[in-house]
Amino acid sequence: MPKKYFILTLGCQMNHSDSERIRAVLESMGWENTEKEDQADLVIVNSCSVRQTAIDRIYGRIRKWEKIKKERDFKILLTGCVLPHDRNKMEKSFDWFLPIFEIGKLPKLLEGKDSFEGETYFEIKPKNLSSFSANVPIMTGCDKFCSYCAVPYTRGREVSRPYNEIFKEVEDLVQRGYKEIILLGQNVNSYMGASDHEIYSRHVGRLGRQLKSLKINDQLDSTNCKVENTITFPELLKKVASISGDFWIRFVSSHPYDMSDDLIEVMLKESKVCSQINLAAQSGDDEVLKRMNRHYTSAHFLERVQKLKKAIPEIMISTDIIVGFCGETKEAFQNTVKLFQKVEFEMAYISKYSPRPGTLAQKQFKDDIPFSVKKEREKKLTDILKQINLRKNKSLVGKRRRVLVDKAKKDSQGIVWNLGRTEGLKPVKFAAGRDFTGEFVEVEIVSAGPWSLESRLA
């Protein structure tokens, strides 16, 4: 009988993309996926040290795994975004720790075989979970060092993937019928990619040959690696949009500091690029932004938003917000409320600040906002978000929208309800005589709530 594996994926879309590469390596070895961890021979935890809640979820599972270990042969492997502090605390509970960029070593680690085809992390072809929507990483790491963020300490500095590799991966996906391509990076706006077999690191400031661990060789002679041969993110986006086929292009995450006019122009001119963007504000108060080390002001953020809205009036803008950051006064939080109301975000990922070990904020500032206050502030923003969405969604009633269907289910009366998303990521459902999963359909909006739209086939 083939051995079975279970992957617990925590955190962002990049981690989910990483898990698809882990799947590819394991299934090349003949292992089979199971959705029930108590049936698995191996559990791989693709972790996230960015938020304490994700780490707490791992601790909540460890007791269960220890119980299984006493009953039969059962192994646990830790990978993903792991701060040294979290790794030191959890390491004794795991059989192995493997850095995410070294997942090609799984065959050697588990079975003593050669590493996975000798390929580097980015070159491992993922085993996609969806047959119509694909995550495509274009870079990894971050050079911003926001004071609250663990990413530079878990992912390392920014490294951009060769643009020809990205182009070929997207082209292959589109030829296989994929309808949605999501370009991923911790900060896609700072992407600077070279051609085949080369990577670019903004930290080192030049091109270098790609190593298995995705590190830059500082001693490498870069005579033949000229920075002029690189392309920026807007240029990459334009190149991907030139691929023939009917598909949408999305991208995350986007840092306001690096949001260029060139990117706005490409979003305007390229019809395949969705009129939707996640622009992480994190706060609407300049003093808080300064302590966060975000490198921009609320005025700069609003200027970028206004330019986006002028170019693309129907653009859907979502954001990330941290409430209760160190020293966030009532007045500071009120500035975030004002930002919400001015921008009219239609989606927001609101998190309550929790200090991450080793970050600048944890070292320099006191976590002085009570949890109850953080919770109140989260609710306040959620209520504003609900009001904005209800008003904007009601304005869509009677209008037609193109929808990509994610899934469908049949009710007790035999009606097939299709659930999908608009270009602006608005959840939509409609009744039909069949399952349209993975297809584009035209619908007419018939009713609206704050978080979803009901429609009928147009």
Verbal overview:
The protein is globular and about 60 Å long. The chain is 32% helix and 24% strand. It has helices spanning 13-28, 52-71, 84-90, 106-111, 151-154, 163-175, 233-241, 261-269, 286-292, 298-311, 330-343, 360-364, 371-394, and strands at 4-9, 32-33, 42-48, 75-81, 96-97, 133-137, 139-140, 159-160, 180-184, 192-193, 198-201, 206-209, 231-232, 248-252, 276-278, 316-323, 347-352, 400-410, 416-422, 427-432, 440-448, 453-457. It is built from 13 helices and 22 strands. The chain has 4 domains: 4-111, Rossmann fold (3-Layer(aba) Sandwich), CATH 3.40.50; 130-269, 2-Layer Sandwich (Transcription Regulator spoIIAA); 275-394, Transcription Regulator spoIIAA (2-Layer Sandwich), CATH 3.30.750.200; 400-457.
Descriptive keywords:
458 residues, alpha/beta, Rossmann fold, Transcription Regulator spoIIAA, globular
Please write out the topology:
Blueprint: E1 4-9, H1 13-28, E2 32-33, E3 42-48, H2 52-71, E4 75-81, H3 84-90, E5 96-97, H4 106-111, E6 133-137, E7 139-140, H5 151-154, E8 159-160, H6 163-175, E9 180-184, E10 192-193, E11 198-201, E12 206-209, E13 231-232, H7 233-241, E14 248-252, H8 261-269, E15 276-278, H9 286-292, H10 298-311, E16 316-323, H11 330-343, E17 347-352, H12 360-364, H13 371-394, E18 400-410, E19 416-422, E20 427-432, E21 440-448, E22 453-457
Parallel strand pairs: 1-2, 1-3, 3-4, 4-5, 6-9, 9-14, 15-16, 16-17, 20-22
Antiparallel strand pairs: 7-8, 10-13, 11-12, 18-19, 18-21, 19-20, 21-22
Helix pairs in contact: 7-8, 11-13
